[in-house]
Amino acid sequence: LTPTKACAWTIAFVVVITFVTSTLTGNYSQVDKIWSIIPFVYCWIVVTDTRTLLMAIVATLWGIRLTWNFNRRGGYKWPIWDGDEDYRWKLLQDGALLDILRNKVAWVAFNLLFISFYQNVLLFLIVAPSLVAHIAVTRCGQVPLNGYDYLATVLIPLFIIIESIADNQQYNFQTEKYRRKNAGEPLTGEYADGFKSSGLFAIVRKPNYAAEQAIW
Fold this sequence. Notes:
Layout: H1 3-25, H2 30-34, H3 38-45, H4 50-72, H5 87-93, H6 104-125, H7 128-140, H8 147-183, H9 189-193, H10 207-215
Helix pairs in contact: 1-6, 3-4, 4-7, 4-8, 8-10
């Protein structure tokens, strides 16, 4: 079984699992639970040389940061198919965008084709450069690392660190904001504004998004 075929079989398996699980449980955020995990799995499957190994390592760091942040916001619970569901799926199911999605058959088709299939294919495509690097090595032979490889190996973890700092600042801000609300305490400063405006957020409105765009 070649790495390429292994990825294809993994995609098929994940599509089936997420579709069946979401259909049986009514929680349509099953793909969300693997969003930060399955991409670096594909990267490790196609590891062939030093370059693809480095790509797998930085992809794993990217995934760890997202998984940690998703988990502390309630994304993972036991049993594993439980946990928070993206509110937008409920809106779509109620016909907020397309009235036809209120039909059960139409919704099942939407779940299969878009939520389960399209999103999982997208998760593979975002790490497609690893597959390209793997194919290049197997067909053309190994190419020594160059300046671009070293630059990416340094910059991507740096941007991940920036994302993590921004995540923590936003999480602490939201936690404190809702604590004050629930305690009936007055909201002042940025808490009254409703959004974070200090720390990294004083430099750019969405520092974690900016760092993510820099990675790509």
